[in-house]
């Protein structure tokens, strides 16, 4: 090669590099091509041509250039790294992984090969190895947003939530204006059960990018977890408007509609999701849960089984199967759940569901010690943020504020509507059974656990921890405003049969809002369900309640919570201008007809024998009692706590049992 040709090659290489650094890939590629026309074995020109082809998305050409470069030299880490990128893009991930490994061995302190190796391993489903690679890359390049983002995603997939959250926090310090990072952070917070914070993260993502469909969908999921179902539905609709072909958004919409008791609409959303993606797991599980809630247990079992066949070990299907029927020792479901629990990559939510499902089937089989052990393990999967002292203080404030004089000063408030029937009490005290008995009457419709009274209370600055705000708001509440609020609650009746004389809201925790019910509906019917305190608390402990029921995480706290409820109900009896009818679970199962006649008489209707066949009703039952209320009345739950006596010392101590 003449000196003049050598000078030309150097000039072309320098010019090509300048174009490459300026982002002028086409010009750079042209200059490197001229070098190769003069010297087809020029290593630098081959490598740089491969890099240009990669940047242009021409992966096949990139591979060819880099193959030629590696035929000349095997000691340059960056060439192996670049060819690995081309191979991975071409779908040859295993070959790419070998190139990334070779690059790492040649230059172990370069971040890129570790990062790309992590991407390849993640693509192959080898998440633990991918995590190690990402961690190494992040240690070498702690300010690289792309590395941290993929590290966070891998941690999230492995359910290592605390580290994933820290990773996204580091990312936000680098790129605070990234909507994607805020949204990903929200997903981790959701998985941790920190739904309010998850919602705030999705709101921030949406503020940065109002057209971010996935952030709207995740916002809907967080709102559903917080029982803010109307808002959840609005957010899911926004996600669908932005991305109508997103099956997950339709499934999320179905979940919100399910929580609202709109089962027909929920089915339509789940079916739309499946039309878009026939294997959409959440939609399939949603249809299975609806079948269970509607008492179609055989259909529910078939649907859950189908998901499990397609996705062996699917946690939602295993847990769903555990609740659709009774189980005996030796059923294959015992081993299936036990095997799944051995997986070290389960999220806290998945472990919670599996332990709860296993406890339930052990309980069915009479393995009471095993059942209690797994109920306890289920409770330990998620920390409770329930503050007992704050709760007690709030109840004390309510008792101080709501007095006979308070109600006397507000006579004439509200609407004279006689339709409202409120079934209140502790969860698991027989509220669902009571509603089913009432709703079996031809002039009574059960509406399930409506959230509307709680939402109305919030319009007054309500909330257990906000007695001062209550006092200030109530000082300005007049009769006209009370009627407006009653009308707001009555929107929940818009889908009800107009022929019904009584409409039942069986949200147990409305016992906390009896002051508001008395103000808005002076002719309302209040039915208070009562059950043996030990049986009630044990049954509550055995449920997989959502995060708003954090008091059921340990037996002692549960006992104190029950005592606070008893004291508040005693206060309401003393001060409310409404009659309260006690319906005792033990009396109902002992003499169904006498109890049912008492209920129908209290709500001012004539007796109808259909009330004795409550278990034959169709319709959705959105409580843990969905199986029990489909059966004729039985006594096996009376004094059931005695089977577990040795496990209940903390509860017995608080309740004085």
Walkthrough of the structure:
There is one protein chain. With 657 residues, the chain is mainly α. Helix content is 63%, strand content 4%. The chain is built from 34 helices and 5 strands. The chain has helices at 3-21, 25-38, 43-55, 59-72, 77-89, 93-106, 111-123, 127-140, 145-157, 161-174, 179-191, 195-208, 213-225, 229-242, 247-259, 263-276, 281-293, 297-310, 315-323, 332-341, 348-364, 368-380, 388-401, 404-408, 431-439, 452-459, 467-475, 479-490, 514-520, 533-541, 555-575, 585-590, 592-602, 649-655; strands at residues 420-425, 444-446, 502-505, 525-530, 580-584. A 5-stranded parallel beta sheet has the order 2-3-1-4-5. Helix 18 packs antiparallel against helix 19 (315-323). The longest helix has 21 residues, at 555-575. The chain is elongated, with a radius of gyration of 32 Å. It starts with a helix and ends with a helix.
SSE diagram, text form:
Elements: H1 3-21, H2 25-38, H3 43-55, H4 59-72, H5 77-89, H6 93-106, H7 111-123, H8 127-140, H9 145-157, H10 161-174, H11 179-191, H12 195-208, H13 213-225, H14 229-242, H15 247-259, H16 263-276, H17 281-293, H18 297-310, H19 315-323, H20 332-341, H21 348-364, H22 368-380, H23 388-401, H24 404-408, E1 420-425, H25 431-439, E2 444-446, H26 452-459, H27 467-475, H28 479-490, E3 502-505, H29 514-520, E4 525-530, H30 533-541, H31 555-575, E5 580-584, H32 585-590, H33 592-602, H34 649-655
Parallel strand pairs: 1-3, 1-4, 2-3, 4-5
Helix pairs in contact: 1-2, 2-3, 3-4, 3-5, 4-5, 5-6, 5-7, 6-7, 7-8, 8-9, 9-10, 9-11, 10-11, 11-12, 11-13, 12-13, 13-14, 13-15, 14-15, 15-16, 15-17, 16-17, 17-18, 17-19, 18-19, 19-20, 19-21, 20-21, 21-22, 23-31, 26-28, 30-31, 31-34
